[in-house]
């Protein structure tokens, strides 16, 4: 309705100015008036008077204005004679409305993503602050765990690595002593067969036998002690290590909670 009223006002203004020009034509002011009408400042300066005249003309000539109103409505609903321009007009109106709606929705989406960005930044700040504190506390616990593992497990394994190597060397010496004892027995048998250097062969055989028996006895006792100490040490250290790691794990869980 606003556009209709505006159109009526414009038509009435044109009619009023036409009558004004024709009425003042005899006075010789026609050219000056036409020149003034062509300028915007004149229309703006006379806007108040024109509006008053609009209502006066509306009261004086209602039938004429009604015809102009009908003509304006026909112009608004009229289709273009050229199909191309009619199609373009329809398309541009629809396109403009769609683009306007999409622009509003796009701005809303952009603002939402910007808010999400700020929320993510705040979340990251708080998250990494908490995580850094957690990692610092966990680092200290892991240092204690490392020290306990080094003391209770690594040192134990290194110690019994050397002990097992010593036990292997002991068995190797016993095996070597056994070979010497067997060779001495063979040499004694050959000496008795030849009846030559029998006394020397017997002394060598007895010495090798005594050495073999002595190393066998000591090796047996050492191996038994090694087994007993090994089992007890591993049981003790592994149990203590498990208790310490359980304690440290509870501390880490308390940090997470």
Model description:
By secondary structure, the chain is an all-alpha fold. It has seven helices and no strands. α1 packs across α4, α1 (2-23) crosses α5 and α6 packs antiparallel against α7 (198-256). The longest helix has 112 residues, at 83-194.
Q: What is the 3D form?
A: rod-shaped
Query: Whole-number average pLDDT?
Result: 78
The percentage helix is over 70%
Structural class: mainly alpha
Number of alpha- plus pi-helical segments: 7
- Uncertain regions: pLDDT < 50 for 5+ in a row? 1-6, 24-47
How many strands? 0
Characterize the largest beta sheet: strand count, sense, and whether it forms a barrel. Answer: none
What percent of residues are in strands? under 5%
Oligomer: single chain
| Whole-angstrom Rg | 58 Å
User: What is the terminal-to-terminal distance?
Assistant: 68 Å
List the secondary-structure elements in sequence, H or E: HHHHHHH
Domain Sorting nexin/Vps5-like C-terminal: 189-253
InterPro entries: AH/BAR_dom_sf, Vps5_C
Keywords: Signal
Signal peptide: 1-23
What labels describe this entry?
signal; 92% helix; 257 residues; mainly alpha; disordered N terminus
Summarize the structure.
One of its GO terms (molecular function) is dynactin binding. By secondary structure, this protein is mainly alpha-helical.
